[in-house]
Amino acid sequence: MDKRITIYDLAKTLGVSAGTVSRSLNDHPSISQKTKDRVISKANELGYKTNKFAVNLSTQKSNTIGVIVPKLNSIFMSTVLAGIEKIANEAGYNLIISQSLESMEKEKLNAKTLYDSGVDALLVSLAYDTTDFDHFANYIRNKIPLIFIDRVHNLPNCSTIIIDNKLAGYEATEHLINQGCKNLLYISGDLRRNVYSERLKGFQEAIAKHDLIFDNSNILESDLSPGSVKHAIAHIKDTSIPFDGLFVANDTFAAHCIKELKKVNIKIPQDIKVIGFNNDPISELVTPTLTTINYPGYELGVLAGQSVISHLNGDINLQPTNAITLRHRLIIRESTLK
Amino acid sequence: MDKRITIYDLAKTLGVSAGTVSRSLNDHPSISQKTKDRVISKANELGYKTNKFAVNLSTQKSNTIGVIVPKLNSIFMSTVLAGIEKIANEAGYNLIISQSLESMEKEKLNAKTLYDSGVDALLVSLAYDTTDFDHFANYIRNKIPLIFIDRVHNLPNCSTIIIDNKLAGYEATEHLINQGCKNLLYISGDLRRNVYSERLKGFQEAIAKHDLIFDNSNILESDLSPGSVKHAIAHIKDTSIPFDGLFVANDTFAAHCIKELKKVNIKIPQDIKVIGFNNDPISELVTPTLTTINYPGYELGVLAGQSVISHLNGDINLQPTNAITLRHRLIIRESTLK
DNA sequence: ATTTATTACGCAACCGATTGCGTTATTATG
DNA sequence: CATAATAACGCAATCGGTTGCGTAATAAAT
C-alpha cells in the first residue's frame, strides 16, 4: 500500500531479471509462456502498476493526444470533442484539451505547451485571428501527426477534416432563393477562416447563378458574439432595399437575430427568411423552428479521432485520406417557409 | 534540429556539472547568479527544451489535472470546463478530460486510467448511476486532491463545489406557487444524484409550506434525454388533476416539453407555467422565454480550478474551504407569467 | 555423441532530469 | 594570520522502465 512495487521488486522475488519482467509484461515473443505466466500472476498478486512516467521517458511517447479548440463552451465544439474523446479513450489515449479563446497568441502558447508536454499528436481547430503557422513547425519537423478540424489550414503533411463549406453555402443560399428571396444578407464570422470564406464563395456563386443583386452590403462580417446582434439588426434595418433572406453563420446567432427581429415587428419567415448553420439543438426549439445546415459534429470528432489513431498506429493509408470531407445536409424548417 | 539537447550537453559545453545546469535552470539559491546567467543564455542559444518525461519521472508529478465529466457535449458542462481550463492553463497545468457517458463502469475505467497516468489531482462530476466510490480510494489513500463538482458525493478529505440545490429547488417551486400554481410536477433527473434529490427536497418543502397537494405523481424521474420527452408529456396529460406548474431539471428538457405541450394546444404560461434550471443560452431564445435558475457554470469551473491549484500549491486553506457553495439566482421570464 | 539452430533469459546502457550530501573556493570573524 | 562560516558547485544515486546484444540452455540435425 505504501510503496509502489516496481519491476525490480518483481524480478527479485521471482529470481529473474528486470528485463525479463518487462518483456513478460509486454508479451514479448522471446519469453517463454511459463515465465510470462509466473511474472503476470505475481504482478497481480503484488498489485504491480506500471509507472507511466518511466515508460514515457524510456519510449519518448506519452500516449496522449493534444487538442486546441477556440472555445470549449460551444455546443458544436463540445460535441466534436465528445466524439474525439470516445475514440481516443477506446484506443487507450488520453486527451489534453486546451482552448485558444479565439486568440492566436494563446493558440501559440498552447501549441508550445502541448509540444513540450510531449503529446503524440495534435488536433487543432484554428482561432479567429490566426494568420501565421510557425507554432506548428515543431510538430511537422518532428513528424508529430497534426490534424486540422473544421477551421483548417493547408499545411504540408497535415490532414484536414471538414465539410464542403462552399457547397453548403451554395445550397443554403439557393434554398433561400428558391423560397422567393431576392435580396440576401450573409452574416459571416471572421472571413480569414476557411469555414466562413468558403461559405461566402458558395453564397456569391448562388447569387450570381440566379442573377440577383450583390454588393458589399450583402455581407456582414461579425464576431458572432451575443453583443454583436444589435449591429446585425442595425445593418438589416439600415438598408435601401430591404433584405428578405438571411444566411447566418451559426444557429445561435441566427436565433438571437430572429428574436430581435421579432421585437421590431419583422415577421419570420413572412418578411425575412432565415437559415442558420450547424443544426445545434437550439435550432428546433426556437419559434419559428430554424432551417439550417446539419454539420455532424460528433461524426467529425469520431473521424478526427480515428484519423489520429491510425496515424499513430502507422497505418499506411495516410496519403489517400489527407483531407476528409463529411457530408452535410440542408434541414428545412419553418424559418424559410414560403 | 535533429537531436534534442539535454542538460548534459549544456554541462559539457559549459564545463560544469549536470546538477549545476539543472539547478541553474530552476533558479536554485545555491547557484551564483553569474553561473545561472551563463547556463540560461547558453540554453537559449542552443535551443534547449526541458524533457517533461524526465522531469515527471524524477519528481513523480505530471503537472496534469484529470477531469471526469458525464458528458462533454452539454452546454453547462462545457462551460464549467471552460472555466477550469482557463485557470489550469494560467497555472501551467494541463487538463486531461474524459467522459463517463453517465456510466459508472466507464467512470471507474477513467478514474483508473487517470490514476495510472499520474494526474496530480482529479476533478469529478459523477455519472447518473454511480453508487459506489471505491474507484476513488487510490486517490484518497495517496493524498491526490479529489474535488467533486456539481454532482458530488461526500468523501472524507474531498472538497465539493456546488450550489444550494435544495434552496434553489425551494425558490423555484415557491415562485410557481406565487404565480398561482396549485398542482405542480417536478420532472427530475436521476434521484441518486445530489443535484436532483436536493432540489426535490426544496420542492417538497415549498409544497408543504404552502399546503398544496402532494403524492408520487407530482414527481417524474427521467433520464432527461430528448427521447424521454414523450413520456413526460404522457405523464402530464394522464392525470386526474391537471398540472398547472412544471419544475424541470434542465432548460433544454424544459424547452422540449414546452414545444410538445404547445403542439397539443396547451398554452404556456396560461395553462401551465414552466421553470427550468441552469440558465442555458437556450432559455432566453425559446418562446415563451424560460424562467430558470441561474447556475453559474463558468464561475463554478473557475472556482474548481482555483481550488485544485491551491491544493496543489499546498496552500493551507483546505479545511475551511472543504465545501464551496456558489450563489444561484432565480431569473423570471415569460414562461411563468401570471 | 557432436555440431548447429533455436529458444529463453541476463546484462547493462539508456531515457533526462532531480537532489542529498560532500567538497572546495570565498568571505567574514576574532 | 588562523579559523569558522558561507557560498558555490560536483558527485553519484535515483526515478522505473525499455531494449540491443551476448550467452547459457535446450532442442534439432547429422
Written description of the protein model:
- 2 copies of one chain form a homodimer.
- Chain A has helices spanning 7-14, 18-25, 33-46, 52-59, 75-90, 104-116, 137-141, 165-178, 194-209, 229-237, 251-263, 297-312; strands at 64-69, 94-99, 121-124, 146-149, 159-163, 184-188, 219-221, 245-248, 273-275, 292-294, 323-326, 329-331.
- By secondary structure, chain A is of the alpha/beta class.
- In chain A, the strands form 3 sheets. In chain A, strands 2-1-3-4-5-11 form a 6-stranded parallel beta sheet, sandwiched between helices. In chain A, strands 7-6-8-9 form a 4-stranded parallel beta sheet, sandwiched between helices. Chain A has a two-stranded antiparallel ribbon with strand order 10-12.
- In chain A, helix 2 packs across helix 3 (33-46).
- Chain A is built from 12 helices and 12 strands.
- In chain A, helix 11 (251-263) links the parallel strand 8 (245-248) and strand 9.
- The model of chain A has no long low-confidence stretch (mean pLDDT 94).
- At the A-B interface, helix 4, helix 5, strand 2, helix 6 and helix 11 of A face helix 4, helix 5, strand 2, helix 6 and helix 11 of B.
- Chain B binds a DNA duplex (30 and 30 nucleotides) through helix 2 and helix 4.
- Chains A, B: It comes from Arenibacter palladensis.
- Chains A, B: Residues 5-59 form the HTH lacI-type domain.
- Chains A, B: Keywords: DNA-binding, Transcription, Transcription regulation.
- Chains A, B: InterPro entries: HTH_LacI, LacI/GalR-like_sensor, Lambda_DNA-bd_dom_sf, Peripla_BP_I.
